[in-house]
Amino acid sequence: MGMIKHATLAILASAAFAVPAMAQDSTSFTGPRVGVEGGWSRVGGGHRVGGDGFTYGATLGYDVAAGNLRVGPEFEISDSTQKECRAAPAIAAGAKDCERSDRDLYAGARIGYVAAPSVLIYGKAGYTNARFSDRIENAGASDVDGADNRSGYRIGAGAEYAVTRNIYVSGEYRYSHWSSNIHQNQLLAGVGLRF
Asked: How many CA atoms lie less than 13 Å away from 26 in the CB half-sphere?
């Protein structure tokens, strides 16, 4: 995920020197876009302990205009710092069973409405495939790692503000649900470039 972190810094630096936009024309919020985002996430459900973490990732999308509507595909790759441990005395004295949320791949669609010249409100839905890791720690030679990938769906809603014709900031809530009833809530902020 080092490339994501470098992209985040580059886009944030560009946004810091942006000049506020004037009124957008009829082609605002259209075309290809790339962005980075980060924020709070909480995983729970299924057999997992659950817990909070920081999610960060990169998005790629394309928006097509249909009057005041904007429709298009969206793709994302993200990772998370979320990790929770619980005691596992049945395995060994002092052993811990630790669960972690790892990479998350998303592909879906977004539909938005231009509510003001510089404001787009939107909803999204799509497919997500996430990896969840497990590790037994402090169990001596029997320390083990395991991971499995789970498929599911994501829905969300948010708003995008055009700082300039090519630079935007965004805020978004989303909910993801995977097999075994594992679910995740997220609140994210982002910054990106349109081309």
From this structure: 2
